[in-house]
Amino acid sequence: MHSQQKVGAVIVAAGSGERMGGGDKLTALLSGEPVISRVVRTFENCRLISRIVLVLSEANLERGRQLATAGGWSKVSDICPGGRRRQDSVVAGLKRLPDCAWVVVHDGARPLLSEDLIRRGLRAAEATGAAAAAVPVTDTIKVAGDDMLVRETLPRRELWAVQTPQVFRRDILTGAYNNLGDDVVTDDAAAVERSGQRVKLYMGAYDNIKITTPGDLALAEALLKEHGR
């Protein structure tokens, strides 16, 4: 990756957070700090990141601006509303990074990522223009129908649980979403795969968990204490 090419980050945090039991993932406190603040701070501290776009729900835009001011987030160039689907929110963020050759997409609900995870993602993406953090699946995965009868047991050695950050050449990701139409994808790598581009997996981290329930928040607290962060 050319050292003069700008790298932007799209942090997606526009979900409804329905499984948080009435709480809000944006402002939920993790060791006394809002979850989203921990995410943004990691990207702020990563010297490879030039600009950050924070994509929030309409209801959280003002709160996001307040956090940005209080936290002195100098790299956050835009705080914008997301769309109905996650992919709509990512596209909204991409449109605000026209001068960036590369983009790192990350879920705002994954607050335990490290700068190293971002750096390794950028290195992994050099060969194909697309890379996603992932960890080997440790459980046995079975395929079953509506009748709950097992149809197939998948070979575990080939299975990976995909995370974020996911790193792309901006033109590849933009083109993939432009050609996606009305299809729904659950992550950005899937959109790129459908466009015919290869996606490189790189080793993520088992503690890079996504907070979707109050139990996840408690687990994140325990992981922080365990690692002394």
* Main sheet properties: 7 strands, mixed
Number of domains: 1
Give the SSE string: EEEHEHEHEHEEEEHHEH
The end-to-end distance, rounded to whole angstroms, is: 30 Å
Count of alpha/pi helices = 7
Report on this structure:
The protein is α/β, with parallel strands linked by helices and 229 residues long. It is built from seven helices and eleven strands. The longest helix has 14 residues, at 214-227. The mean pLDDT is 93.
Quick rundown:
By secondary structure, this protein is of the alpha/beta class. Helices cover about 30% and strands about 25% of the residues.
Q: Which helices and strands, and how do they pair?
A:
Layout (H helix, E strand, L loop, with lengths): L6 E7 L15 E2 L2 E2 H11 L5 E6 L4 H11 L4 E6 L4 H9 L7 E6 L7 H10 L5 E7 L5 E3 L5 E4 L6 E10 H9 L9 H7 L5 E4 L10 H14 L2
Parallel strand pairs: 1-4, 1-6, 4-5, 7-11
Antiparallel strand pairs: 2-3, 6-10, 7-10, 8-9
